[in-house]
Amino acid sequence: MEEPKVFNKYLVSLTKIVSVYCFFFVLLKSIAIFRGAWMIPNVILAIPFIIMGILTAYTVLYKKYSWIITIITVVLIIAVRYYEVDLVYFLQNKYGN
Predict the structure, then answer these.
(1) H or E stretch covering 70
(2) Which end of the chain is more exposed for a tag (fewer CB within 10 A), N or C?
(3) Looking at residue 69, what is its pLDDT?
């Protein structure tokens, strides 16, 4: 049974938004590092976004959309953004100088 076309449009749009957001987040973390922010925690937080961005870009380029991948990336984005400040301080205390 094929999904209705409306849900496919939502999936395509959401996957594209997630892909663009991941690369935008990495760009923001890079700019923050160049402006003097702590390097280690920002790099550690950017790595999952690089992986998720590549994964979602692959799904967009090859049109192999998946609700599971998109929902997992959205949940991870929300979790990291919600706990970002605490994670930065924790990672700096643990791995920083």
Answers:
(1) helix 67-82
(2) N
(3) 93
Token reading at 12:
């395509």
> In 3-state terms, what secondary structure has residue 33?
helix
Distance CA 88, CA 82 (A): 12
Distance CA 97, CA 85 (A): 18
| Token digits of residue 63 | 């049109």
Which positions ≥6 away from 17 have C-beta within 8 Å? none
Q: Which SS3 state, helix, strand or coil, does residue 21 take?
A: helix
Give the global pTM: 0.85
* Count of CA atoms in the C-beta half-sphere (13 A) of 3: 11
pLDDT, one tens digit per residue, over 20-54 is: 999 999 999 999 999 999 999 999 999 999 999 99
